[in-house]
Amino acid sequence: AFSASSSSSGAVEVITFDLDDTFWPTTPVVGAANQAFVDFCQERIPGFPDGAGLNEYMRAVRVEREQASVALGERHFPLSFASLRIVGAARAAVAAGFPETDAIAVASRGYHIAWIPERGNAAKR
Description:
The chain has four helices and two strands, in the order ββαααα. By secondary structure, it is mainly alpha-helical. Strand 1 (2-6) and strand 2 (12-16) form a beta hairpin.
């Protein structure tokens, strides 16, 4: 996505998102962060899936929300990848037999304790 606007001072403000490795390598950074998140969850939740399995849960949440919006005739507001990751992980944990409230707590903590720090660390490498 690209957005540019001109302020009254004549300066141009730009916001850009690069998730396809155009300007810098994001795939290894996000991959490392995803693996750190999965490792965190697997250490705490017996039977938690690998990264590919988690991606399937995330995709299922996205599709389910899109279909629900269409069925209700409402505008669909996509979740952020952070939200999809946390909800998908919580669903995966529940599917593995983990209590729902604990699943939400572990997934949320894992995102903040494992995913975010590893994203920063991997970006520096």
